[in-house]
Each structure stands twice: as C-alpha cells, then as structure tokens.
Write a structure and sequence with these properties.
By secondary structure, the protein is mostly helical. 60% of the residues lie in helices and 0% in strands. It is elongated. The chain starts with a helix and ends with a helix.
Length: 158
C-alpha cells in the first residue's frame, strides 16, 4: 500500500514538474500569440536576483515585475526588439542571458576561439620542439676503460 502511494506521488511529481512555471495565472495574457511572444522574450531575460535563471523561470519578485513589464509593453504594441531594448535601457545589458555582439562584448565572444587557437599553437609547437640528440655510442677504447672501472669497483667491494 505504501509503495503504491509512493509510486503515485512520484508519478504526479514527474508529470506535474514540467507544467510548473514561475508565471502565475494573473500574468498570462488573453491572446495566446501575445503570451507566446511574452514567454519568448522572458526566456531571454536574466533574473537579476537569481542571475543564472530567466525571468520566465524565476519566482523572485523582481522577475515577476519584469514579466509584467514585458507583457505591458507587448500589450502597448511594442515589437519584441523594442521590449528588449526598453528592458536593457533600464537594467543594462547584464539582463540579457545571451549578450549582444558589440565593441564591449567582442572579447567575450572571441575568447573561446582565441583560447582554442592558442592551445592548438602550443600543442603544435610543443610537438615540434627539438628532441634531445641521440646519445653517441661508446668507442671501443671507452668501452674497455668503462669495463676496467667496473671490474675495479666490483673487486674493491668484495
């Protein structure tokens, strides 16, 4: 009996979790097309409280205020870009989950490629580095001298 109850609760939790969103019913727009636009915009805006979560997924009060603001701007007739520009003008570019490519963010966008090229160059140059020269073989005279030294050393130890 307890196992069945636990299984039922687990199933409810698994199937209900995707439906759970931070957006409350009073925020939802009547027009499904406008609501879809609002969701799309909200998914690309960072919650300034949670920082690594979109305002669409965040339960923070500020995220709720931003969701309402997005919906108000959409209802006022703004395009998606106008809504995003308005939010960025108020909160800065940090509010964008995907930063724009401009003069201030070019380093951010180019850093992975620069690091990849630098790593490749390092590996290439390290593999081409001169290997130590092969050790020269002993001449017959050197080998005889070495053998004599080794024999002397062995006899002195015994």
């Amino acid at each position: 009996m307890i196992r069945r109850l636990a299984l039922a609760l687990l199933c409810i939790g698994l199937f209900a979790a995707p439906a759970a969103r931070a957006v409350t019913p009073d925020e939802v727009l009547d027009d499904p097309a406008l609501e879809q636009r609002a969701r799309g915009i909200s998914a690309g805006l960072r919650c300034l409280v949670c920082q690594n979560q979109s305002i669409d997924d965040s339960d923070a009060d500020l995220a709720r205020d931003l969701r309402v603001l997005v919906r108000e701007r959409i209802e006022a007739g703004d395009t998606d870009q106008q809504v995003i520009d308005f939010v960025v003008s108020r909160y800065g570019e940090f509010v964008l989950l995907k930063p724009r490519l401009n003069a201030r963010t070019v380093l951010l966008w180019s850093a992975p490629f620069v690091l990849l090229l630098a790593g490749g160059a390092f590996v290439f140059l390290a593999s081409r580095r001169k290997r130590p020269a092969e050790v020269a073989k002993l001449t017959d005279e050197e080998r005889a001298a070495l053998d004599e030294l080794l024999k002397r050393d062995q006899t002195s130890q015994h």
